[in-house]
Specification:
Elements: H1 5-20, E1 33-39, E2 44-53, E3 56-65, H2 68-80, H3 86-101, H4 108-111, H5 124-141, E4 148-149, H6 153-158
Parallel strand pairs: 1-4
Antiparallel strand pairs: 1-2, 2-3
Helix pairs in contact: 1-2, 2-5, 3-5
The structure holds zinc ion.
Zinc ion is lined by residues 39, 42, 44, 66-67, 69-70, 129.
């Protein structure tokens, strides 16, 4: 995918904005699912608090620290998944992961704001920053008890 310069600038602005002022930060007392994740290659850490009802997300908040990409990704994720079913979320993560790792046509309608991370594909080290929140969310929804690490992707995906 090629982007013109102005569009790329806009995307970077959105990542910087969410990275500096992440949405939905905090602790959720009514959480039904909770999970921590860690990307040791960059030092990104976060904990997700999810309140779900009949496998639909009602509320989500997160606490954490890390680079702008990891925080922006977590922030945008929390904005996008409210009122979505677990099944829809797993499909969205799959599309998002493919966009960051494969040469495919990007489904811009479904990915919506997540397309701001399309440029991350050119920086393989940063893919883990962009996907940490999603790996952690998937583990939370699957009720995995272990600490999520981007260095255990195979194990996480197999569960
Ligand atoms: Zn990072």
């Amino acid at each position: 995918m090629t982007m013109n310069v102005s569009l790329r600038d806009l995307y970077q602005e959105m990542i910087l904005d969410h990275g500096k002022n992440p949405r939905n930060v905090g602790y959720l007392s009514g959480a039904t699912h909770c999970q921590s994740g860690h990307n040791p290659l960059c030092g990104d850490r976060l904990t997700l608090y999810v309140e779900a009802d009949h496998e639909v997300i009602k509320q989500i908040k997160f606490e954490g620290s890390g680079c702008a990409i990891s925080m922006a990704s977590a922030s945008l994720m929390t904005e996008m998944i409210k009122d979505k079913s677990f099944t829809d979320i797993f499909q969205l993560f799959s599309l998002f992961h493919d966009m960051l790792t494969k040469d495919i046509v990007i489904d811009e309608v479904t990915l919506d704001k997540l397309t701001v991370f399309a440029g991350v594909k050119e920086f393989p080290m940063r893919v883990k920053c962009a996907t940490l929140a999603w790996h952690t969310l998937k583990a939370a929804l699957l009720k995995s008890e272990t600490l999520v690490s981007t260095e255990n992707e195979e194990q996480t995906d197999a569960s």
